[in-house]
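Hey, I'm writing a tutorial for new members on how sequence and structure tokens pair up, and I'd like a real worked example in the thread rather than a made-up one. If someone can provide the structure for the chain below, I'll link this post from the tutorial.
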Amino acid sequence: MAEIRSLPAPLPPDGTKLEKDFLDSTFFKTPGQQLPTPAQVRALSPDIHTHPQPKPIVFRNPNIFVKFGRYVTVAEAQCLWMVRQAFQGTVPVPELFGWRVDNEGYVFIYMELIEGQTLLDGWEDLQSTDKEAMRNQLCDIIGSLRHLTQTSTYIGSINRQTLPDYVFQSVPDAGPFPSIKEFNDWFSTLPQRHLPPSLRYNDPYREFLPDDGDVKFTHADLHRGNIMISSTAPFRVIAIVDWGQAGWYPDYWEYCKALYTCWYEDEWRAEWIDRFSNPRLQESQVAWEYTMAIGAV
């Protein structure tokens, strides 16, 4: 891959709009074609009334994948758009067709249906050479993402809101933060946030979180279930999906979260994550202590 020194992140589309069509997408190349309405999506959902995160709905002819729910955000759609605009396919993501927000607060993201299998599902059938080839692809993909730069420094969602990582779902006022130091200071206080002042102690781990790193655009959920690969050989990565936790984080966060998403004994963790993501073992140990302390496991 040709070296990319820096790439200014494209300004995302206005996330306050309740309805947005991307008329330059391939979906709208067919005259008169319209995205399904939220009501049509709801009518096809078997679990919208029984599950807080209903299963996505697939439409055929034309092929559309609709991710929706109360926990889906417009920011995720903005991330898809930004990555595709910035890299023009070298970082493979589903093409975004549009979004809707209905009067019950459900967000509907309409995107390209990726035909393939997840790396998780196909892992046991892969040869070591296949895994190595995809490791090389993931190195290029993550390396590209880390060349995106902000117009002004902050840590938070793509639209300058609170951190979207599910680690912080139960924590109020999770950003945005103007610097890595302020994020680290806040993160390190979380285990003691419910303690009265008389019981608080000097945190032994805070000094191991570096304040002098860089803020990087981060997927924040790089497990094998979010890596789509081809169904047949030669196997290759065809898309990185599920950008709901993506945003601007300290440069150590991608590695920490990649470890967080799998079992300690897992081959993916033991042998592969360190080979496509810059190892940050010290920071990951500290982050794990904090996340366990706040019950985010």
